[in-house]
Amino acid sequence: MTDLSTIRSEALGAVQAAADLAALDAVRVGVLGKKGHVTGLMKTLGGMSPDERKAFGARLNEQREQIESVLEARRAALETSALDARLASERVDVSLPSRPEGQGSLHPIGQVMDEVGAIFGEMGFTWAEGPDIEDDWHNFTALNIPPDHPARQMQDTFYLPPRADGTPVVLRTHTSPVQARTMLRPDVQKMLADGGSLRIIVPGRTFRIDSDATHTPMFHQVEGLVIDRTTHMGHLKGCLVDFCRAFFEIDDLPLRFRPSYFPFTEPSAEVDIGCSWKDGELRIGAGDSWLEILGSGMVHPNVIANCGLDPAVYQGFAFGMGIDRIAMLKYGIPDLRSFFDSDLRWLRHYGFSALEWPSLTGGLGR
Ligand code: 2NL
Known about the structure:
Elements: H1 4-17, H2 21-32, H3 37-44, H4 50-89, H5 108-122, E1 126-127, E2 133-135, H6 136-139, E3 159-160, E4 169-171, H7 176-184, H8 186-193, E5 198-207, E6 218-228, H9 233-248, E7 255-262, E8 265-278, E9 281-284, E10 289-299, H10 301-306, E11 315-322, H11 323-331, H12 344-350
Parallel strand pairs: 1-5
Antiparallel strand pairs: 2-4, 3-4, 5-6, 6-11, 7-8, 8-9, 8-10, 10-11
The structure holds 2-{3-[(4-chloropyridin-2-yl)amino]phenoxy}-N-methylacetamide.
């Protein structure tokens, strides 16, 4: 049997030698654990005479307590140095500049809608919206679109199940039903009767059954409408010339008004802007080519009447253009379908800052 003083001196040496908490615990188990040396000596107490047991037991207890207190002191020291090491290694330099937070960006469609809104806003137009799902009356009939017009065919328009009363329902094929709904509003009719002018732009989603490199089934339009007693074709021309020059940010942008046909306007004109093609690359602003960018005309008397106004009293002009198309032209985005891929790399490249609101004075876009 190992002598008590040997056990003691070996235990104290092992405690000081323990380099970490795990090693220290191994020392504790070896000395004080169930099969430890001190525990082994305790078990021999039973075989001793009462006097022997009393003397040896007292020494044994005293030595055990001493080992325990040295173990405890060493444990505290090791814990402190472990904490110090962790604090040193995990130190945070609070003086470092923070990492910039990721910023989202605006889709070119929203950006261009805002730019168009800023330009027409300066001319006194307000922004109107309406439902994507329309009845056939507001989408077609009110707009003087005849029953045999190709736009009404199933292969051109998304038809939804009819309403309970049998009304045909469609995904709107243009934003014009919003203009019709606006003209029909009692407060608008009163404002017009009182001698006011209606001036609205209507940006929004539109839907047609068409899908190829230059058409997507869902696309975006902005239409505009002016109604009062005196607005004429000269106003249409001046308004659209000013718009195109402001939008493309080219003061002397050449424009061409070309006679055309729409069921809802008479007369009608399409508007082209001057451009040139050099080495297969489009340059907007000058040259011997023309690029169609919008359709327009004087609102057809039938449409005025369908919207509850007297065509002998009221007149005005309307226009419409594709937002996706003018966004591609202005910002040089080659593929329409990429607009709707939701590819973050595309958005980071073509997106706009949400903090730079377009305005004529502060700038429209880059
Ligand atoms: C185009 C041509 C156009 C209109 C839209 C309109 C609306 C009402 C009455 C009369 Cl309520 N007209 N809208 C007029 C002319 C052309 O759009 O090429 N859009 C992409």
